[in-house]
Amino acid sequence: MSILTRYLIRSHVGPFLFAFTAVTGLLFLNAVAQRLEDLVGKGLGFSVMAEFMLLSLPHIVALTFPMAILVAVLYAFSDMTGHNEVTALAAGGVHPGRLLLPLLGVGLVLTGTMLFFNDRVLPESNHRLSSLLSDVGSKSPTFELREEVVNQVHTADDTRYFLRAQGIDQASNRLTDVTIYDLSRMGENRTIVAQRGEMAFTEDRSDLYLTLEDGVIYETTDARPGGFQRLYFQTQIIPFRGVGTQLQRETGAGSRGMREMTIAMLGQRADQALEDVHNVADDMLSLSETALERTLAPAPAGIMPVDEGQRVGRDHHTSETASESRVTQHRWQVQYLNVYQYQVEIYKKHSIAFACLVFVLLGVPLAIRFPQGGVGMVIAMSLGIFFFYWVGLIVGERFADRGQLHPWFAMWAPNLLLLIPGVYLATRMGRQMATNRGSRMDEIRYWLGTPFRALGRRRRSSRAAMTEEPA
What does the domain layout of the chain look like in residue ranges? Predict the structure, then answer.
């Protein structure tokens, strides 16, 4: 590896790490804040919270990794051009295109890394995160009791309790007008009514003890139909075992969504959906042939014209055939859209990974062409390019999911639209080079004003031609 190549790679490491850390941190805090409401008050341990945060990172990394590459390329080459390093290299016989080759190699390696990440790491983390949130959502802790609502209390031994309180003081854990429906014993029903109550958890907050005062217990049993027992009490303690921290984990269980599948899984599902499309199409063809044969079948010889009853029966059969045809057509459309949706996810994984290489190819000539923008220009260009890319990706996905665009074109169109100007600017790197003179916006004004200046020159030349007198 030459000195120049090492220098180019080393100059990108710092900006890349800074951009990647900053953007990932911001999006990570936003994602945690959105999900925090679903996690607080669940009695979850530190390990569960840490697992949630760790599993939330891969989805964010898939967004910020290409963005950090674009920011690093723009900043590094803008800084090199601003310090006349590119000009000095060109004066020494190093073509600017030579500076692009090592970064294209690095971009190719990062593209393969990103493809592996999107195919292996991201689906598994999405699946584990979905399972974790599902497990947490099914957990109903007792300290989230609501007033004047029948709350179901889950215990470790799966006993069934339902509790209702007219008033709950969260600060003192005091309850008023308490009613408990005890269905823990098969064949027996017990209802406990008390004027007051107080909740107390054990030190590890796993067990709840409810102390009731001034109440009555009503019991009925299937052994004595029509009879019940009533017991009055001044103080009654009811334990609820394992209600605070019991979280039933089913990691890896359940079906996987589209974003929880690898490329191989998505390919299998797409092939199966395509096979279903062919099967439904065969059913539609068979149904149409049967209906056509019955319609064109000649009447047997010697049979009188059909009467009203026969005509009604034939019309009924025709109506059933039309209904079956509509149902079959709807099935075909559903399976056809399923094929597109699976293919969209496959092409999306490849497209996002390839964007790393596209951003390198586009960022280098842009940074050399506009070196005086500074950090503000780097941020503005990065946001503009990435906004265009992700909007194109989202819009294309919507159209492809509806069957209005082919999945390949919908997912690869943003890359192609950025790749074309990137190749064009890269081929002109040796012809147009900016200097560090002028203000930060002079280069952009000049670049944007080029078409208008050309139009003005054509108008002036045409006016001059009209005013010339013929010889």
Answer: 3-137+350-460, 142-240, 259-296+308-345
